[in-house]
Amino acid sequence: MPEISHIQPKGEGFFGALPHTPRYYIKVQVTVAEPPVRMPAGSHFAKGAAVLLATVLAGGCAAPPLAPRADKSAEVAPPAPVEIPVPARDGAALFVDQAITMLGQPYRYGGAAPGGFDCSGLVVYAARQIGLMLPRTTQELRSVGVAVRHDGLRAGDLVFLHLAAKELHVGIVLDQGHFIHAPSSGGVVRIDALDQSPYARGFIGARRLSFPP
C-alpha cells in the first residue's frame, strides 16, 4: 500500500511561493520480479537434471514399504517343554495286558498259544510273555503264589472256579468284578463278571503271583 508523508510547508512551493500550502510526498514500493532463468533445451545441465529427477521419482515408487516395527512388549516367550514321567507298569498289569491281547481267540483243549487256548494255557502263555514261568495244568497252578480272599481280589490274581461243565477252571482277574478266561469248547477268550451266574456260586479260591521285577 502507498505511504503518504506530510511535510510542513516552508512558505514556498515548487512553482513559486505557495503560502500555507502543505507539501505531500507519496512513497510507492515497487517490486520487480526477475524473469525465470531458462536453460537451453539441449544443454547438458538440463538433461542431467531431468535424468536425476526421473531417477528419484522411480526410486521412490519402487522402494519397498517400511516394515512395521515389532512390538517387543507383546512378544511372549514360549513355555519350556515339561516332561511328564510315565509310571512303569508293574508285573501284574503287564500280565493282564498280555491276556487281553488274546481276546477272541478260540478255545482249544490243550492249547497254549495264539490260535487256540484252554483255561490254564491262557494263563501260562500270558505269564511267559513277561518272563514268568508257571506250571501247565490248572491243578498245579493252585499251588503257586499266595492265597487271596474273594473281597481282596485285584488285577493279575488267578481265580479258581468249579463249573458244571468243568471240575476246575482258572482265569485272570481284571478287577474285583471281572476276569478274563478261555471258557469251554465252542467258546472264545472273553471277559465275564465274577458276580454273575455261573461264576458267582462257583468260586473256590484265588492266588496272587510274584512277578519278576
Written description of the protein model:
With 213 residues, the protein is an alpha+beta fold. Among the domains are: 1-30, no CATH class; 91-208, endopeptidase fold (from Nostoc punctiforme). It has helices at 44-62, 91-100, 119-129, 138-141, and strands at residues 3-7, 23-27, 112-113, 116-117, 146-148, 158-161, 169-173, 178-181, 190-193, 203-208. Helix 2 crosses helix 3 (119-129). The protein is elongated. The chain starts with a strand and ends in a 5-residue tail after the last strand. Residues 4-21 have low confidence and may be disordered.
CATH H-tier superfamily of the domain at 91-208: endopeptidase domain like (from Nostoc punctiforme)
CATH architecture of the domain at 91-208: Alpha-Beta Complex
Mean pLDDT: 78
**Uncertain stretches of 5 or more adjacent residues:** 4-21
* Residue fraction in strands: 15-25%
**What is the H-and-E element order?**
EEHHEEHHEEEEEE
Q: Identify the CATH class of the domain at 91-208.
A: Alpha Beta
- Helix segment tally: 4
> What is the rounded distance between the termini?
114 Å
Shape: elongated
